[in-house]
Amino acid sequence: MIYVGVDLHLRFCYMTALDASGRVLQHGPVMNQGERLRGYFTGLQSSLKKEEEPVAVAVEACGFWAPFVEVVEPLVERVVLVHPARVKAIASAKLKNDRIDSATLAHLLRADLLPEAWKADRATRDLREVLRLRVALGQQRTRWKNQVHATLHRHGLRPPVTDLFGLAGRAWLATAELRAAAAQVRDTCLRLIDELDQEVYALDQQLRAQAHADPDARHLMSIPGIGPFSALALKAEIGDIHRFGSKRSLYNYAGLVPVLRQSANRKHTGAITHAGPGTLRWVLNEAALTAVRCSAGARAYFERLCRRRHPHVARTALARKLLGAVYFLWKHGVCFDEQVFAAM
What we know:
344 residues; alpha/beta
C-alpha cells in the first residue's frame, strides 16, 4: 500500500507518499487543478515502480475539500477525509509547515490512527448551499431593517406601530419627517429590503415544494416547530441518519451534550459542547421555541424544567428532545405522535 498525506491549499497541495514501512517515496507540491491532480495520481504508481500497489490518501476537511475528493476518489483505493479538530499531532506541533503536515497525515494514515470525517454526497452539499443562501438573505434583510431603525433612533423618531415594515409601518415611514441624508438612507434601505423580500419569497416557494416532495422531510414536518425550511436544514446538516448508531451519538454530533471532565473520582460537567454544525443547533432552538406554543407535551416538558433550571437551559434540553424525535421519525419513517414524544 502507498500512503499519501495531502496538505490542501486553495491553489496547490503538498503531497507526501510513504510505503508500508514508513519510508518517504516522494514529496512535493502539486497544483490544485483537476488535470494536474489526475496526472499525479494516474502516474504515481508507475513513477514509483509500484504498479501493483494500491493507494490510500488522507486530506483534512476544509472549505474546498469536495472538488479535490471528487477528482481523486475514482483514481485511488481509499480517500480519508480527516476531522481537523481531532488531529492533535498537527494542530499542536511546534514545528509546522506543508511538508511536515503532509508527512504527519501520511504516517497517521499508515498507522490507521486518523479520525475520519463523514464525506457528504453532492446532493447534500448542494442542499446545504441553497439553505445557507436562504439564511444569508434573511440576515442581509435583517441588517437593512436594523439600519432603518438606527436612522430613526438617531433622529429621535419612535414608530407608532409594532411592525415597522408592515403596511401601517411602511405608510408611516413614507411620511416621517427626515433630513435629506436620513431620507436617502431610509429609501435605499427600503428598496433593498423589497428586493430581498422577492428573493426570499421565491426561494421559500422552491424549498416548500422540495420539502413536500421529500418523504423524509414530510415525516420531520410532523414534529411541532419544524416547517419546510427546518426539515430540509435538518436533512442537509445531518446527512445520512443511518450513520448514527443511537440518538445519543446524534446529540453529540449536534453539540447538544454537556462538556465532561473526569479524572479518577473527580467529575465535572459544564455547558454544552457546541461541536458540530451551528446551523443545526440554531434550527433546533428555533423549533423548541415554536414547539412550546403548539405542543402540549413540549410545553409541559419545558415548564417542568423551568421550575428548577434557567429557561435557556430548558430550551436547550427541549431542543435535544426534539432531536431525539427527529432521529426516531427519520430512521423509522413514521410521523410524530404526541404521546410517544411525552414518554421519550
